[in-house]
Structure formats: C-alpha cells, structure tokens
Amino acid sequence: MKARETQWFIEPDAKSNEAVARMLSENCLQYENCQTELMDDNGLPHRVWQVPDYKTVSLLLSAQKQFGFKFKIFNRQNSRGLIRKWLFADKKKKKHKKVVF
Hints:
Blueprint: E1 6-12, H1 14-28, E2 35-39, E3 45-51, H2 54-67, E4 71-77, E5 84-85
Antiparallel strand pairs: 1-3, 1-4, 2-3, 4-5
C-alpha cells in the first residue's frame, strides 16, 4: 500500500508576503510554480506558497512568533485535491483560572 504524502502550503497576508517569499526562495527552485491559487474544502480560492515539508512549516511558525508574520497554513493529502486549513497552528494555550480560597 502506498504511503500518503502530505503537501504543505502557506497563505501570508500582504505585509508578510515578501518576507515569506524571500525565506522560501532557496527551496522554491525545486517547484515549477511556487505560488499558486488553490481551492480549499469550502470552495474558496487561496493564493498560497507551496512549502517543502513540515520542518519548514515549523520554522515559519517560529519566525511568525519572532517577527510577527501573519499567515494561514494549509495541507492536503497526495498531490491532487482540495487544500484544508491546518487548525493546530491556531491553537492557543489555555489559561487556567486562578483558584482563590
């Protein structure tokens, strides 16, 4: 049975787009179209950059915290089909309520 391949994509906002493009430029040479428009599972179009792997996604997430980049992360299984938003990137740490006795 063939293993599923996960493809990763990011959609930066207008301010972060140029910086993200510079960060991905080294890896971009291996792809025909680095930035493309893909449909998500809700039928909405997104202008996304293809990211080589999850390791690069995690590097972008740390840069997001450090430099204030804003972008959405999408993925899809195999090379065809609709992209879906990766919800784990938006998770916030839960703050516990302080208990006063």
